[in-house]
Amino acid sequence: MSAATTTGTSTLLLRTCAAEWSRLWTVRTTWWFVVAATVGVLGLGTLLGFESASDPAALQGQPAWDNAQVLMMPAQLVLLGLVVLAVTADHATGGIVLSLQWTPRRTVLFVARALVTVTTATGLGVLLMVGAAVLADATAGSALTLPADEGVPAVGEVGLVLLAGSSLAVGLGSVLRSTAGALIAVFLLVVVLPLVLPLFGERVQELADALPGAGAIFLLTGSGDMSTTSSVVVLTAWAVGALVLGCLRLVRDDADR
Known about the structure:
- There is one protein chain.
- This protein has helices at residues 2-25, 28-53, 56-59, 64-93, 95-102, 106-140, 148-176, 179-196, 202-209, 212-221, 228-252, and strands at residues 62-63, 144-145.
- The protein is an all-alpha fold and 257 residues long.
- It has one domain (2-252).
- A two-stranded parallel ribbon has the order 1-2.
- The longest helix is centred in the middle third of the chain and has 35 residues, at 106-140.
- It is globular and about 65 Å long.
């Protein structure tokens, strides 16, 4: 009986993931986000390469991965915006009622929606980061290099930041159920507060370091007083906490409120 129940749940989850995948990619707005992120990241990567080629002696073969990681700071906002819109659109249009008629088990729906959106945003972001690094190296001549041993940890850091950020966006979108509200919350936590709070003194700096944006900034740019371990812990805690709250909101409250 238990095996049959597990099989049934797995089948339902796979079916719901397929439905969520179709829902995500049949919306024109999704493609606009993808085009914006692709053009922005790859275009800036190419421009950085040409700029680096103008003064190769100053860079002395600096890894192109460093430039590509920095580019993911603004790019992640576009990808997180895509996730927020994918999660909140159902609530804004009332389509969540139809979604729950198709998948009455709310936990399964939440897990499927999180898996599809987080995987899409993270995978796309990692591909764009690698593409930007390759283009920067190709257009920079001898100014930049593309060592594989430095590329692996760089890709891992970008993947972790996007994975945690996308999970945070899913959770906040599910809790707030408002596209504007969730976008503002994500923007504040990821960009504004981590940059503004340190201006008010050392005590407030500790609060800023506890925000997900601080961990993302450290891993992508290396700036800040955090360590790799503390950055990972902060990002993971916010991501898991947001997902738990988002799931509880969907399971316990009326979905169309």
